[in-house]
Amino acid sequence: MATTLKQTCSRIFLVCVIAVAIQVMFFSPLPDIPQPSSSLPFPSNSKIQEVIKLGQGFLKQPEAVAVDKTGVLYTATRDGWIKKLFRNGTWEDWWKIDDTDGLLGLTATATGGVIVCDADKVMFADDVIESSDGTLYFSIASTKFGLHDWSLDVVEAIPHGQLLKYRCLKYWLKGDLKGQIEIFIDNLPGGPDNINLPPDGSFWIALIEIFPSKMRFLYTSRASRYLIGAFPKLSQWVIAPHKKAMVVNVGSDGKIVRGFDDPTGKVMGSVTSALEFEGHLYLGTLYNDFIGKLPLPT
Ligand SMILES: *[C@@H]1O[C@H](CO)[C@@H](O)[C@H](O)[C@H]1NC(C)=O
Fold first, then answer.
1. Which of 41, 71, 248, 283 has its CA 20 to 30 A from that of 276?
2. Where do transmembrane segments lie in this chain (predicted)?
3. What is the C-alpha to C-alpha distance for residues 199 and 88, in angstroms, rounded to an integer?
4. What does pTM read for this prediction?
């Protein structure tokens, strides 16, 4: 009797294991990926911990900041608002877009308008910029997975991001190299998010630590990637944006000039954008409820 029961149980167990294995091996959408390369060294300086907090409590996860010709700052918040900060320090609920949590990058145009990316309307539109001839350029963070499934895109780690990945690319809009794409900077010490252009011709790039180093096994172990591909919900708790905040200033030659961080996200975490304006950096975030203002050392 006991032996038959034991045999039945072990058969059921075996069938379950085979069923899970089949699910994992054959219904997983993940292709093979190259191994991650080591990133550029970046010494921590905790400078972001010195930020002045603007609009604290009033701004739900303000991802990005834009400034218009008159010096008014704009940010889009995760409760669907564009809010503005006058020079006198007063905040205003300026424009309610929608009951969306998909508002990401924004820009102030030469004609005095504000354009904001709504990742729920345009599939994962992440950031927007206006060129000198008035053309708008959007970056799409992922063409395959939407905003709420972005952790899967990270696991997959093949370049579905059209403009941005752990490297930044340069796309020539005009001149002899028109239409060509080259690597602008590679092996960044984090996942690049929004890029802003200060007046000196360099670039401010916010880096998110999407992938804490203790999660590296996900890249090296094929089984764990298959498991996440087969059961996508797992990725939501395996991969969350780590709180570490980091921004780097990259020269037009693609070299890091300087950078600031908050290694633990103690004061400000998951910084998604850095806008330079009148000697200060204005930092947007996925994590906090304020904009960080950091005086730039001269
Ligand atoms: C700040 O400026 C705005 C726009 O000019 C104005 O509406 C607001 O009342 C001002 N706030 C204060 C406290 O002066």
1. 41
2. 12-30
3. 24
4. 0.74
